[in-house]
Structure formats: C-alpha cells, structure tokens
Amino acid sequence: MKSTNRIGPRIDASALLALLALATSGCPQGEGSWDPSADDAGGDISEVAGDGAGEDAGADAAVGDDGRTARCGDNVPDPGEQCDDGNALSGDGCEPDCTVSCTADAACDDGEPCNGAESCSAVHACAPGAPLPDETSCADERVADGVCHGGLCAPVTCGDSAVDPGEECDDGNLTAGDGCEADCTYSCRFAADCDNGTVCDGAELCSALHFCQPGPPAPDSTLCTTASGAPGVCTAGLCGAIGCGGAVGTDPACPDEILFQQALALYNLLDYAGALPLFDELLATYPDSRRHDNTGYLAGRCRYALLDYAGAIAEFEEMRRLHPTSLFTHEAFYFSGRSRFALLDYLGAIGDFRAALVTEPAGTYADNADYYIGRSYYEAADLPTAVAELTRFEAAWPLSSYLDNARYYLGRALFDQNDYAAAVPPLQRVLLTAGSYYADDAMFYLGRAYYALADLPSALTWFQRLHGDYPASQYADNNLYYLVRVHTDLGDCASATAAYAELAAAFPASTYVARAQTYLAGGGC
Cα–Cα distance between 300 and 166 in angstroms, integer? Predict the structure, then answer.
C-alpha cells in the first residue's frame, strides 16, 4: 500500500556505536513456543547509563545563558527555531528541523479534491478534510472530467471491472493496496512507490501485479532512529531504543519482558483466561515495549479463544492502529475476520480476510483466509460468488488443509443452486482427502444430487455407503429417510420397510419418521 510515512534525519552512526559499546549484554532468553511464528530474535541490550556522549552537538550549536547547549531536538524552543517538540516525527506540527509543519491551509493541500479540503490546525499540523460522496464530479491533474470514487478522483467509468481509456486498471472494488486503487491507477509501479521510509522492515517491493510486498528485514543491529528521535538498532524488523521498556528491551531482567514471558507461558498452556490479564497489564503499563504489538495480537487471540469475538475485533483493530507495520498484521486481520465470521458478519469478515492476503499473500494464514472468503460468500447466500471463489481456491491451494472443506462448500453452493450434475465432481473430490471431516456430509449430498438427477442406483450406492461407514453421522436419520424413498421408488418394498423400521427405532423423535411412513404408503409399500 502506498505510504506517506517519513523518518527523521539518520543519527550519527559513530555516536550510536559508542553507546552500544557501553551497553552490557543481558542473559540469553529462555526457549518458549509461541503463536504463530518464531518470536523476535534480537540479542538482549542492557540499559545504558550514559553521560550524554552520544548526543550530536553540531558545530553550529550555541550555548545559552543557562549554560545549556542549544540544539534542535532538545524539546526547548531556542532562538532561530519555530518550534521544538523533541522528536523526529514529520507532520505532527513541528518538523525534525524545528520548523512548523504548516502555517496555512494551502500548505496542506494534497491535490486530491475527493478526500476533502485539508486544513492547518491551531497547532500547525495538517488535518484531513471530509471525503466527498461517491459520484461527485471532480477534476485533477490526471483526470479532466471525473467522479469521486472511494475518496479519489477517477474516470467516470472507473469501477466497472473493464479497463477503459484513461485507466491503468479496473478491478471493480475499492480495496486499497490490492494492485488497483479506487481511482483505477496501479497501487505501485516502482519499488519507490512502496517505500514506507522505515529502515528496519527492509526495502519494500512492487510486485508484477502492482501491489506492494515487504522485503527482507534489515539485519539485526542495523543503526536506526526511533519514532521519538532516539538512537536505536533494528531487531526482527523493528527499530527500538536501547534499554528496558523500549522497542528493543528484551533483557530478561526488564519488567516488560518478565511480564510478557509470564503471560506467554500461560498462553502456551492454553490458559487464556490467566494470560489475558497479564497481556492487558503489559499493554497499559509499557506502551513503548518492544513486545507491545506481539502482546496486542496475543491479547486478541486470548479473547478469540474465550469466545469474546467483539472484544477480539476491538483488540486487533487497536493493535493495527498502534503498529501499522507490525509483523503480526497478517495474523491480526485473519483472526479479526474469523471473529466477524463467528458473529455472522460475513461481509465484514470478507474485508478482513482480503486485507490479510494483501498484507501477506503467502503468510501463515493465507490459505485459511482465502478459503474463508469463499465460505463467507456461501454463508451470506451469494452462491455464484461462492462458486467462483471456491473454484479459484481449489486451483490456487492444492496442498491446503482446507482443500476438502472448500470442495465440500463448492459442491454445496452448486447443489443449492439446483445444479446437481455440477455438484457431483467437487463432492466426490472431498473423499480424496483421507479422514475428511466432511466425508459423511459429501456422501449424503452425493446421494441427494444423484436422487435429484433420477439416477436411483447411484443415489442408493451413496446412501448405503454413508449408512455403513458413518452410522453416527449428523445425517443418519435424513439418510435412512432417503433410503426409504429410493427403495420405494425402485419397488423394493421389503428393503424400504426395513429402512423405515430402523429409522423409527433409532430416531423415534425425528421428523423424518412420519415423512418416511407417508412416502411408504404413497408408494404402495
């Protein structure tokens, strides 16, 4: 996704190395499993008791009447500075060079008419405007006569899934960062379009399909500058300040690390109710901890496991808001989608699953997310789209553990549209997965499909196979009812009567008992 993030001036490398030389190394971390992938692997960095030698006292630094060396970034506005907020953040009202971010609304105008009129606030920070409604007429340097589409000025034909003159692409949706933006331009064309200005997470790439992909993280101990302007080093793709409580504070003696490991131990024992309060305590007490994004994700996982789906969604959203470049963004989107799915918010779930794939197309849960897109369309009763998505999934993920699930729901989506002949092949392919959870379901609907096609011998084969292989299936009473019907239709009254007797004895409260009796009588048995 395109990024407008910028970082402040790079720190003096020699100064930081001097700091690192003073640091004492901590004890190695103990081993421990965690979810979903290996934890941050950086070495421990003990707290440094420095004397200010790491500060960059430039040649033009001045000494004030109080004996203090005046310089930009010391959180004290000095003569010649418009402001000084002590950090290296751009756009927050005070720039890294100690000039204000803006003085007039015109300085904030990004040239995009559809996302509203930006303004310069009283604290000299640019504030966004209110996006204009879709279909509002617009024009900019690229589009002479267009309409607003997802907050961007786009050609009138943008969004119709056909690439028209003046459009680079048109995928028919408003999803940002998926290769085609809401204004029908590519999400990226060059790697520079994807650069988020962050050193530690590596050089982002623009894929052949024009969406941004993360590059390999910078090697641990690469010099960097934290968001607050402090000197730091890269560890596992993150830039953290040196010492306890900072983003690289993983010395086992650091209180945030101790708390994290206590919570993680309970989490790994599946004691989610015990782990959650400790994760919550770390989030509140150590907002600058290197573990903060890990903790937010795992707190959301605890809430998901405890069936607090609304709480899990809120936790994952907050984690992504605070840590938009976190290595756990993919996982957070996926479990947010699973939480929405559990709450029957299928359209919301689809959005999260798609975001998980955009964030990391080959991530830990990529195939799961892709499956649940098709499954969500099925549950939302959009059967044609479900067929298209599940067909694509079957081709794209031949080794996925969700392959049999996808084949079953593909067959069901076709069956539910009365396309019985097309439903048969995917239902049969379910059985290619040994021990599939959906084996009995597939057999039952194979029998139903053949019965609807008036192929009674094939229907009888599948109903009898289900009866023999899965006597405790959820479809056991339904299946006996259809055996009564098939035998009756074939004129085999003895077998029909025997199936009815078994149904009445095994499932006396089933509604299928009366229906089978009626069918027997109507069929002359």
Answer: 44
